[in-house]
Amino acid sequence: MLDDEEYRQLVEEKMKARAERNARQRQAEREAAEQAVREEREAKERAEEEKRQEAEREAEREKKLRIEKEARQKLQRLNLVQKFKTTPKGIRNVEALRSICIECNSDNVQDRSPSEHYFKVCQECNAEWYVNHCWSCGPGLVDSRDPDTPQCSVCGWYKCAVCGACKLDGCSTNPYNREHRFRDVRENS
């Protein structure tokens, strides 16, 4: 049998062992919690990095698509310019070429002056041309580079390919003037 002193020592040792076990268990729990926090933070950082990389890849894809689109547009424009440089008939109907020089394929084109925005000047080769809509019929387009809209030999204005109107104040080559437009005649008939 154990005497009181031995029993007390045994109880103290058991309590000390239990306290040490509890301390180890709490330490293990703290370490596990810290590890879980670290793993969660690392997982979040990995997810953010993957998201950033995906955004970079998407931006790169968009840039590549934009460059390809611009290249297609330039090629298409070049083909149009080459086509209309050799045969300018119908160029007035191609909106994309109204501010493109067909002499040098430049889009560095400006208005001749703020008050003459229908007169275009190429800043590369100094070519000049006139583009506008018809004042008489409305939908008719005029482009000085198009043989279907020639300059009138009497008044010097470009003639509309749709209605034949030239000068706003009237010209002996057609019956239209400011008060008697092609569209007025069509609406009244």
Summary, kept brief:
The protein has 189 residues and is α+β, with helices and mostly antiparallel strands. The protein contains two helices and four strands, in the order αββββα.
Account of the 3D structure:
This protein has 189 residues and is of the alpha+beta class. It contains 2 helices and 4 strands, in the order H-E-E-E-E-H. The chain has helices at 4-86, 182-188, and strands at residues 109-111, 119-122, 128-133, 141-143. It has a 4-stranded antiparallel β-sheet, with no helix packed on it. It is rod-shaped.
Task: Please tag this protein with its features.
189 residues; alpha+beta; four-stranded antiparallel β-sheet
Mean pLDDT: 91
Unreliable residue stretches = none
Q: Helix and strand string, N-terminal first?
A: HEEEEH
Could you estimate the helical fraction of the residues in percent? 40-55%
What's the gyration radius in Å? 42 Å
- Sheet having the most strands: 4 strands, antiparallel
Give the tally of β-strands: 4
Alpha-beta content class:
alpha+beta
In whole angstroms, the N-to-C terminal distance is 133 Å
Strand order of the largest sheet: 1-2-3-4
Number of helices: 2
Principal-axes shape call: rod-shaped
Beta content: 5-15%
Q: How do the helices and strands line up, and which of them pair or pack?
A:
Blueprint: H1 4-86, E1 109-111, E2 119-122, E3 128-133, E4 141-143, H2 182-188
Antiparallel strand pairs: 1-2, 2-3, 3-4
